[in-house]
């Protein structure tokens, strides 16, 4: 079986962290079938197209770095869209000349909207779609015009099947896109070789950790306000804050008197995130909305209980009092109370049991097999 993938996001030399979770999914998938990933990326620093191919066993990543075509923003976007799709078609032709392609895979709809439809028409190859974007749950979908919504519905309905990373997202897609087909739910994956329980010594202070891109969605400001309230009662804690910090977040840390309690790590690579988690005690995720929550299962894999917003999607990952605690969404006082509870009783959770469950449920082998079974069922029907 040979899958050709066109991801909406993917790590590249332009953005090394974009869609890294998609890359991990594809590494899991490549354990059972051949995977070719085509990644056209606009690079404004170059003047001619640069092709970079990376082969890693069954996974081949083909990067097409192409230059910007115009200084006029809207025109450059149009040229970029055309260039992107022409490169996708070219890559598929070259790949199919060497080996039969079984399935086209659109992972997150971006510029690749029509890629699957065109290839299905040209080569009679079915296509499937994966989605994990918050685009469908944060209000952006509702703001699109009627034509844009129809395009999304058309692309989904022409697909042989579709996949979502959570049951919450799958039902949201079915409802908002009025889909006349069933989809599959396959969760995100954890690299069990990097995320595992390795907390050898007790910390002098209860150490919390938060990992995110620090945008509005993650409600870092509300989380810091809760920690400021905790400090008034019990100051025996540290907070590892991992991710790109804005000036406003840095300022808030000082204004709330948390400078001595917060360690800022800024952006860190995947392996470094695992190491920081392994030296922490509790993961905190006061997010406003999610379609899954990779950091939740990564923290659990390291044996950390999570204090997380009570959302439909987090209910799929967290069992209260086993691998975490729920707080009412955007309720700073409720978060304050749960943080204090963790401070007063840090040993209430079993980190080894938490780690074993997460690593068993979300490892590469298990998730890769689920994808393979999905692809097989699609190809049997087509």
Could you please describe the fold and organization of this structure?
The protein is an alpha/beta fold. The protein folds into 2 domains: 2-189 and 363-381, Rossmann fold (3-Layer(aba) Sandwich), CATH 3.40.50; 206-361, Rossmann fold. Helices cover 40% and strands 20% of the residues. The chain is built from 13 helices and 14 strands. The chain has helices at residues 20-29, 73-98, 115-123, 140-143, 146-158, 167-176, 220-233, 247-255, 270-278, 294-301, 332-344, 351-361, 364-381; strands spanning 2-7, 34-42, 50-56, 59-66, 103-107, 127-131, 161-164, 184-185, 206-211, 237-242, 262-266, 282-285, 306-309, 324-327. Strands 3-4-2-1-5-6-7-8 form an 8-stranded mixed β-sheet, sandwiched between helices. A 6-stranded parallel β-sheet has the order 11-10-9-12-13-14, sandwiched between helices. Strand 12 (282-285), helix 10 (294-301) and strand 13 form a beta-alpha-beta unit. The radius of gyration is 22 Å and the shape is globular. The model has no long low-confidence stretch (mean pLDDT 94).
């Amino acid at each position: 079986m040979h899958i050709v993938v066109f991801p909406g996001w993917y790590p590249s030399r332009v953005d090394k962290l974009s869609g890294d979770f998609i890359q991990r999914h594809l590494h899991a998938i490549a354990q059972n079938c051949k995977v070719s990933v085509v990644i056209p990326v606009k690079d404004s620093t170059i003047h001619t197209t640069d092709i970079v191919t990376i082969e890693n066993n069954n996974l081949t990543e083909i990067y097409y770095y192409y230059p910007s075509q115009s200084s006029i923003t809207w025109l450059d976007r149009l040229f970029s869209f055309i260039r992107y799709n022409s490169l996708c078609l070219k890559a598929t032709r070259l790949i199919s000349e060497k080996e039969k392609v079984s399935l086209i895979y659109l992972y997150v709809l971006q510029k690749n909207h029509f890629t699957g439809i065109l290839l299905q028409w040209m080569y009679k190859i079915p296509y499937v779609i994966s989605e994990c974007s918050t685009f469908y749950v944060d209000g952006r979908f509702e703001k699109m015009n009627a034509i844009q919504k129809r395009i999304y519905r058309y692309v989904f309905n022409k697909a042989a099947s579709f996949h979502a990373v959570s049951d919450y997202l799958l039902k949201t897609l079915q409802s908002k896109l009025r889909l006349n087909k069933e989809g599959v739910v396959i969760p995100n994956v954890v690299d069990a070789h990097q995320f595992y329980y390795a907390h050898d010594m007790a910390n002098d202070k209860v150490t919390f950790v938060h990992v995110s891109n620090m945008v509005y969605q993650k409600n870092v400001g509300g989380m810091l306000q809760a920690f400021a309230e905790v400090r008034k009662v019990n100051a025996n804690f540290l907070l590892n804050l991992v991710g790109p910090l804005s000036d406003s977040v840095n300022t808030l840390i000082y204004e709330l008197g948390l400078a001595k309690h917060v360690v800022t790590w800024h952006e860190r690579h995947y392996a470094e995130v695992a190491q920081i988690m392994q030296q922490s005690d509790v993961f905190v995720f006061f997010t406003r909305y999610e379609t899954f929550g990779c950091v939740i299962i990564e923290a659990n894999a390291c044996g950390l209980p999570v204090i997380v917003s009570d959302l439909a999607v987090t209910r799929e990952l967290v069992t209260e009092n086993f691998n975490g605690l729920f707080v009412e969404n955007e309720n700073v006082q409720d978060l304050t109370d749960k943080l204090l509870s963790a401070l007063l009783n840090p040993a209430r959770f079993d980190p080894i049991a938490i780690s074993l469950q997460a690593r068993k449920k979300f490892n590469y082998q298990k998730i890769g097999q689920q994808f393979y079974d999905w692809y097989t069922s699609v190809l049997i029907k087509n």
